[in-house]
Amino acid sequence: MRQARKKGLLNDKDKRLRLSYAREMTRVLRDHSDYYTNHVAFYLDAVSFVHKNDPRKAAIQPNSRVWRKKGEGLAVTAKGSKTLAGGIRLHVLAAIAWGKGIILSKVYNKMNGDFFAEFVQNNFNLCFGKAGPKTGRKRLF
Asked: Which InterPro entries match (predicted)?
């Protein structure tokens, strides 16, 4: 079976940087247990999922098991294609604030540097405003 995508492997420098960051955050959280609720304004995440236009049509087609091999249960899934037969991939940027829920969601087609720069320029002030003031006027995202 062909490997779908190989992610970059961590080298020694990456491991040292991650370990250093983890130790620093351990110290911060020991001193400020409310760090994530009172110092971080919002979390920004890009999510995507495939939804089908006509699931019945795809289900009755012969050999329509894109995600599973014959004999595999639902617990063991294999990666199929990014856009399934009859399916569409939806991409969403979501900003989530503690105590407020989702404060912004934007649908996008392609993520690149120009799009993200424009997104930050047009939406970050709105996100910080909706998230509200944080402790000591410190607001991170």
From this structure: RNaseH_sf
Beta bridge partners, 106, equal 93
In terms of DSSP H, where are the helices of 32-101? Answer: 35-38, 55-60
Q: How far is CA 43 from CA 62, 66, 93, 97, in A?
A: 43, 33, 10, 6
Q: Encoding tokens for residue 108?
A: 């996008």
Question: Is 5 a domain residue?
Answer: no
Q: Is residue 1 part of a domain?
A: no
- State the DSSP H helix or E strand holding residue 89, giving kind and residue range, or none if neither: strand 87-97
Q: What is the pLDDT of residue 23?
A: 95
Which residue stretches of 1-112 are H helix? Answer: 12-31, 35-38, 55-60
Are the CB atoms for 89 and 48 separated by under 8 Å?
Answer: yes
Q: Quick one: CA dihedral 98, 102, 106, 111, positive or negative?
A: positive
Is the residue at 28 inside a domain?
Answer: yes
What is the reported pTM? 0.58
Structural domains counted in the chain: 1
